[in-house]
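User: Can you recover a sequence for this backbone? Please restate the input before giving your answer.

Assistant: Of course. Working from this structure:
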């Protein structure tokens, strides 16, 4: 049963969302803004883990959709003249220059080209350490890049949050979570943030998965079969990263993980707030506009065109290479959004938030069932309502 409202003319989106969620055992929300006004605000499903009600006001973790919140902060600082993306990161964060990182630029860092895609495999970073900001940031500042910065591109699943978050802290004088709350969430009245206030904890609905996480041995065997030696530095770092991130999925449902800032993964909110934020990046929303059109246009330029994965990871199959911009990702087979002209960010399990400036559309989709298999392409739950939205807009 789908609940919520749609504006006249958007009824097909409601029908498509209901179809998409008909076999999903978890909860989901879909929100769409058009020219600064809400036109879709829907929710469906249930919470099979804690038995909590699932409504349009429910909050859940966004995983890598969180990186879109961080990108909005970084581009706001850039628009204000406080952050020059062509300057070395070390000009804002001097300790970062260690171990040959003095030439890594802010643009390298924001577009997953810094060579710090994972923690150093010898640093001993565990899931418990993810909650220790200073430990993680110091480890990244001290380490040598895993591959030549700027020469390749590899998605930074967890380290991106500490890197961009510490950069923003150095520039803004406050944490990225506080900056987001003050400069973005409060003016727009969002139920969205990096971490979660304890007063809202009762509205949190946990994420879950029915899929077994791959073991280190299984990943190593897959690397070996592809011709990648799993014992050398970069593959070891990747294996550690995959295992620890999978281990964190359950712990990210807990209060300790909500009480800190994990900017790569612990954005927490609902679909209507996610869509509202993206709507304010491309237009006026109740008197608030976050970014100028020229800021957005610059931020949407693909920065990794022609750059592949660093050796030896280039031997692994990749059917949908990342298209990286200034903190946001651009449409690709795996995350088509509303086709070219969109920008935003997807997250593990099937969450996604994005905007399409030319169409004046912003979308937020949040789900609790980590069902998206990225190796198979786009999440099947997105396809019915994105197709319906295309039809309505055309």
């Amino acid at each position: 049963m789908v609940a919520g409202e749609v504006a006249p003319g958007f009824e097909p989106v409601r029908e498509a969302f209901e179809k998409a969620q008909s076999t999903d055992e978890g909860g989901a929300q879909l929100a769409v803004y058009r020219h600064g006004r809400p036109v879709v605000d829907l929710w469906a499903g249930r919470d099979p883990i804690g038995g909590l009600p699932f409504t349009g006001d429910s909050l859940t973790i966004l995983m890598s959709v969180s990186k879109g919140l961080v990108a909005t902060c970084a581009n706001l600082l850039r628009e204000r003249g406080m952050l020059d993306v062509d300057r070395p990161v070390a000009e804002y964060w001097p300790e970062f220059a260690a171990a040959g990182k003095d030439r890594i630029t802010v643009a390298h860092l924001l577009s997953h080209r810094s060579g710090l895609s994972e923690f150093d495999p010898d640093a001993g970073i565990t899931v418990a350490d993810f909650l220790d900001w200073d430990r993680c940031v110091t480890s990244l500042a001290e380490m040598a890049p895993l591959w030549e910065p700027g020469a390749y591109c590899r998605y930074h699943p967890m380290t991106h949050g500490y890197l961009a978050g510490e950069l923003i802290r150095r520039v803004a004088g406050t944490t990225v979570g506080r900056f987001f709350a003050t400069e973005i969430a409060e003016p727009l009245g969002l139920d969205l943030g990096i971490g979660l206030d304890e007063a809202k904890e009762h509205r949190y609905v946990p994420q879950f998965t029915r899929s077994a996480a791959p073991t280190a041995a299984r990943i190593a065997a897959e690397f070996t079969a592809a011709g990648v030696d799993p014992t050398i530095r970069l593959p070891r770092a990747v294996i550690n990263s995959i295992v620890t991130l999978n281990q964190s999925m359950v712990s990210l449902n807990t209060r300790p993980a909500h009480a800190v800032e994990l900017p790569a993964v612990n954005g927490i909110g609902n679909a209507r707030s996610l869509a509202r934020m993206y709507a304010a990046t491309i237009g006026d929303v109740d008197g608030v506009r976050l970014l100028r059109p020229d800021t957005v246009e610059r931020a949407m330029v693909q920065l990794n065109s022609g750059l592949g994965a660093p050796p030896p990871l280039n031997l692994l199959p990749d059917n949908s290479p990342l298209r990286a911009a200034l903190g946001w990702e651009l449409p690709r087979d795996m995350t088509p959004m509303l086709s070219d002209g969109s920008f935003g960010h997807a997250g593990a399990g099937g969450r996604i938030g994005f905007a399409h400036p030319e169409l004046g559309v912003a979308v937020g989709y949040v789900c609790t069932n980590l069902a998206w298999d990225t190796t198979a392409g786009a999440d099947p739950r997105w396809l019915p309502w994105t197709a319906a939205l295309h039809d309505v807009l055309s």
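That completes the design. Residues 233-251 form the longest helix (19 residues).
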